[in-house]
Amino acid sequence: MYTRRVRLVNFRNHIDSVYDFQKYNYIQGDNGSGKTSVLEALYILFNLKSFRPQSVNRAITFQMPFCEISAKCDDCGYEKTFRYRYDTKADLRDENGKITNKTAYLMQHPVICYSPEYRQIVSDDQEDRRRFVDRIAFQIDISHFDSLTELKHLNAMKSAELKKENSDRIYLDALNEKIVSASKKITGARQCAVAQINEHLRGYYSLLKDNDGFILDLRTNSFRTEILSKEFEDKRLVYGASRDKLYCLSDGRIYDRFSSFGQKKTFVLLSLAAGLKVLEENGRNGIITFLDDFEAGLDENRIRKVFEMFSSSSQIFVTGVKNHYFSDLHSIRIQVKNDEHSQ
């Protein structure tokens, strides 16, 4: 996938903005000019949700009834136009009409995204960390999404039954049989993705000559079915892939806090670069990479080396206040003048 042009209408501070892109793009402008919003809009278009911790309706310009993101793209030599509109609900279309198979759409448009607002694998919330790995696992095997959906539904049914004063043990046993099967499949897919990510993480840290050497560590109880009896006794869920935990590991020690912003950011960026390589090795292509406020907190040597790790992306978007290090990138200057934004 290669995005040639995007138009933003009523999207945050973009009343009606049009931007043209090349393979490598640097979007620069003052703080608050709308640089990150351009990346957010493209991310929403291809991922159907924002990387910011809020729903898409919050991106609609104040006192406007809707927002719309449209893009002209090159997909394997074919020109395609995608349009995402949000008023009271989302509406996604291409030149053939409304897109109804959202799972297939997501599979066809893989994205890698770094933003200071997008915590991902270093989030305090384990669910966010699981989502990071699940996105990789989903792009490797589309059935991973179905397994996650099934497990969520089964856990909801089991939770409701456990809350009853007299739970039906036979019914719970039937649910548990399905939950065990789904959990083992989900956790197995996560373990496979983590192993592949870690292989590249080790190589990237070696390339940076960094002594930290962080990798991902997945802890699970999906293969300990004996704890299912504890759920019946405690009347709460404790088993399965929904309880998988991901940690940052270095020299066998778990790190929940990093010693510096640069150390933390490097780990996130290398994890994303490793995820990119995993997807490529599993036959995915057309991957778009978003690097919001990329240079902040990194020295020049690390900026160049880490950027090179993403160079195999189909297209890259970098944002910053001023382009100090990437003179060879297509530069787009965003300026704000009386609610009108131009290149």
Which features does this protein show?
343 residues; alpha/beta; Rossmann fold; Glutathione S-transferase Yfyf (Class Pi), Chain A, domain 2; six-stranded antiparallel β-sheet; five-stranded parallel β-sheet; 8 helices; 39% helix; 25% strand; disordered C terminus
Written description of the protein model:
- It is a single chain.
- With 343 residues, this protein is α/β, with parallel strands linked by helices.
- It has a six-stranded antiparallel sheet, with helices on one face.
- 37% of the residues are buried.
- The C terminus is likely disordered.
The chain-level mean pLDDT equals: 94
Whole-number total of structural domains: 2
Q: CATH homologous superfamily name of the largest domain?
A: P-loop containing nucleotide triphosphate hydrolases
Q: Give the helix/strand class.
A: alpha/beta
Give me the CATH architecture of the largest domain, please.
3-Layer(aba) Sandwich
Proportion in helices: 25-40%
Number-wise, the strands total 16
CATH class of the largest domain: Alpha Beta
What is the CATH topology descriptor of the largest domain?
Answer: Rossmann fold
Taking pLDDT < 50 over at least 5 consecutive residues as the criterion, the unreliable ranges are 338-343
**Element pattern in H and E:** EEEHEEEEHEHHHEHEEHEHEEEE
> What shape does the CA trace take?
globular
